[in-house]
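Q: Convert this sequence to structure tokens.
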Amino acid sequence: MDVTSAAAQVIIAVIPIVGIFMGSVVIFFHLFWNHRRRILLIKAGIYSKPEFNLLSFSLLSGLLLTTVGIALTVLLVIILGASYGLLGGIIPLAMGLGLLVYYILKRNETTAGLRSSEASRSVKCND
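A:
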């Protein structure tokens, strides 16, 4: 016979609500203070836009999603067999492979552009 007190049930119900609320407050103040800091840097004239390397991001997240997708797919095949639950592993696997394909295509495009610019420089130097 499982008898829990009413106070214990209330505490168990309130803890997730308080946790979500406090997490939201922390995220709000982080965004707010980051915005205020950026505005002050702009007013002072010392703000520089942070650079985002999309190529490195796509490689890192592609590798991460691919490995997580492979692990989940293998685990779900062992546990569930061929069912709709397998999508939990196939979706991150496909996303990771897509990001890796993007990385390879952009890297090849970038290196081809560098080669053509180097070739045009060498032609100009020989003239």
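Residues 1-50 form one domain.
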